[in-house]
Amino acid sequence: MSNSGGPVRTPVAEPVVPCCPPLSRRALTAEEAGRTAAMFKALGDPVRLRLFSLVASHPGGEACVCDISDVGVSQPTVSHHLKKLREAGLLTSERRGTWVYYRVAPSVLAALAGVLAAAD
Predict the structure, then answer these.
(1) pTM over 0.70
(2) pLDDT per position as a tens digit, 50-59
(3) b/e code 53-74 from CB counts within 10 Å (16+ = b)
(4) Rounded-to-integer distance, Cα 66 and Cα 55, Å
(5) DSSP element (H, E) containing 44
(6) Strand duo 99-103 + 9-13: pairing
(7) What is the pLDDT of residue 120?
(8) What whole-number distance in Å separates Cα of residue 51 and Cα of residue 59?
(9) Residue 82: what pLDDT?
């Protein structure tokens, strides 16, 4: 198999886009509640919340795992927490060579804020 010499970009996880109305607009369906609860549960851990904020606030909107590994826990623990954030649909990731880069989709931030927003 030949390589064109450019970076290899292999998606690690597909984004999950939450889609829920503000809580004050209508009751969530069981599916919406499950999806939203998974996101908030993932953010309920202080290390995960910190990792999420580090990725979200990183210059350029994405962070290499090498940029966000110093959060007071071991690297395998960081990887575990990043996996949980990906599984909850809060982060997307892309492998480039030996490093994995993480990104928070703008739609995820908007959807989380929207769930807690007051209805018009």
Answers:
(1) yes
(2) 999 999 999 9
(3) ebbbebeeebbebeebbeeeee
(4) 11
(5) none
(6) unpaired
(7) 59
(8) 14
(9) 93
